[in-house]
Amino acid sequence: MYGQYQNNYNQPPPPPQQQQWGQQPPSSYAGPGGPGGPGGYGYNQGPPQQPQQQPYGGPPPPVNYGAHPAQNGYGGGYNAPPPQQPYGGHSPQPPYGASPAQPSYAGPPPHSQQQQYGAQGGYGAPPPQQQPFTQSQGARFLGIPIPAPSPAVPVNNLSGYNAQFDAERIRKATKGFGTDERTIVDTLSPLDPFQMEVLSRTYEQTVGRTLKKTLEKELSGWLENTLVLLSLGPLGGDIHLLHRACAGMGTHEDLLVELLLCRTNEEIFHLKEGYKRVYGKDLVSTVRGELSMKTERMFNMALSGQRDESTYVNHQQVQQDVEALYRAGPGKIGTDEIGVCGILISRSDAHLQAIAQAFPQRHRVTLSQMVQNEFSGHMRDGLVYIAKGAENDGQGVVRDAEMLHAAMAGLGTKDERMIYRIVRSHWNRPRFNAIKNQYQAAYRETLKRAVEGETTGKYEKALVGIIEQN
């Protein structure tokens, strides 16, 4: 299946409409946070609820919402971007795991009310009633602030960043005979999501063609793959990957696992809205058309965007869920797949971490090992992805280091997986540093050295350039 994905990947998708992202942030928008990035990265407490504001242009109406073979690895994820800085570099960020500062940039949507949901019943019971996500002035994706998507007024300039200078650098690097790939790498790799958004808009205004189309025209192979994904930013990159996962012959469920499971309700909202805006299709219907049976139901649960996002842990409910998971798996003849999905997909990151700690104490097998033993196929891969994210550090760092290693282990490099895992992870720079530290501790080799051993030429320099930004 992965070979199919590689073969399909370099076929360019239909040109997306230029996305209307974000408003210009204040001079200081940093502040790690968010209820958790993909893979249950909830190592940050969400900022306090902001006073309700109407963004210029008006928000959309309130919307109600709501992981593949073991050798493929597990995960992706992010944290807070740097504050505004002079062009050409990034200011230091709080270390991974540090307490979040009070953000001055508009915060994420209100958290669910903290309440004990042990009374909700046994496994498979719905999470407690909570506030539905509604679009606010600020936007968060993959654990970091991003330019607010359309219909918000787009960011046109940023103090301390000269987007016109970078746009001209890329124009000259792609003008005439031959392409200066190194200049493109050096220009794109240091940028944060806001700078990348402003550059993309400035380039289109200057050249009359989108940056994505220019990169697709001037580059090829894995270098094109890397820089196109990088140029789209966190949200645009994930929307692009969702399209690739569902396009062509066959569905790439392994990629859907990393893109759709363990996401916050706000992230699911942005993915569904963005996919509709760029490709004119309903994401839920598209995914449903690509899958079948219980795997389809698992992804439908994730796309509902109704996860509990409370940081409160009801330990009585944890013990009930531990026993319910056992009864649905090893404790019965046959496996109640949907019952297990109902718990692992709907529970909060903090609750899942507590389950992962309690399960082996009670049943002498880890949560992920239980899933491996009881499930098969794509549903097993998805649930192992969730369980691995809840185990160890409880924030998916160990899992994501294993995932990066899996993309380079064995005969042949899984280039596609290595690319999107590195690019997606690098946006959350403090967290990416934690992943790199874990990688070196586990495999006695730096991630940079490992990538250098698996790649060559300008493609190697592009990935190393991204890794070195942290």
What labels would you give this structure?
1% strand; mainly alpha; two-stranded antiparallel ribbon; globular; 50% helix; 470 residues
- Whole-number average pLDDT? 79
What is the strand tally? 2
Q: In this structure, how is the largest beta sheet organized? A: 2 strands, antiparallel
Distance between the termini: 33 Å
The percent range for helix content is 40-55%
Q: How large, in whole angstroms, is the Cα Rg? A: 21 Å
- Element-level helix/strand string: HEEHHHHHHHHHHHHHHHHHHHH
The geometry reads as: globular
What's the arrangement of strands in the largest beta sheet? 1-2
Oligomeric state of this protein: single chain
Q: Name the poorly predicted regions.
A: 1-93, 99-130
Helix count from the secondary structure assignment: 21
Percent of sequence in beta strands: under 5%
Structural class determined from secondary elements: mainly alpha
Keywords: Annexin, Calcium, Calcium/phospholipid-binding, Repeat
Protein name: Annexin
InterPro entries: Annexin, Annexin_repeat, Annexin_repeat_CS, Annexin_sf
GO molecular function: calcium ion binding; calcium-dependent phospholipid binding; phosphatidylserine binding
In short:
The protein is mostly helical and 470 residues long.
Task: Tell me what you see in this structure.
The chain is mainly alpha-helical and about 475 residues long. It is built from 21 helices and 2 strands. Helix 2 packs antiparallel against helix 3. The N terminus is likely disordered.
